[in-house]
Amino acid sequence: MNKERVKGALDEATGAAKREAGEWAGDGTLQLEGMVQQVKGKLENAWGKAEDVVHEANEEAEIQHEPRIEVEMECAAIEDHHGEHK
Questions:
Q1: What is the pTM of this model?
Q2: What is the average per-residue pLDDT within 53-78?
Q3: How many helices (H) and strands (E) does the chain have?
Q4: 29 close to 79: Cβ distance less than 8 angstroms
Q5: Alpha-carbon gap, residue 17 to 68, rounded angstroms
Q6: Distance between CA 33 and CA 9 in Å, rounded?
Q7: Least CB-packed of 9, 32, 40, 85 within 10 Å?
Q8: Are 22 and 16 in contact (CB under 8 A)?
Q9: Residue 86: is its pLDDT beyond 50?
Q10: Cα 17 off chain centre by
């Protein structure tokens, strides 16, 4: 979990609390502020999730790429070895 997701979770929770407080107090401005903060939190959380997905995909690509390089190097070494015996 990255910092965007943490910020998003905090903004969602704070926004929900403000919205509820505004409802109880009959304060439409506080309700609106809470809703806006909740939406902001949802967007931050979504952005953080997207960053996590990209990071994980990059890590997976690096992991999958290394064995392919090793195999190519081993094949080249075998070809060179066979070429020397001809």
A1: 0.66
A2: 67
A3: 2, 0
A4: no
A5: 52
A6: 16
A7: 85
A8: no
A9: no
A10: 26
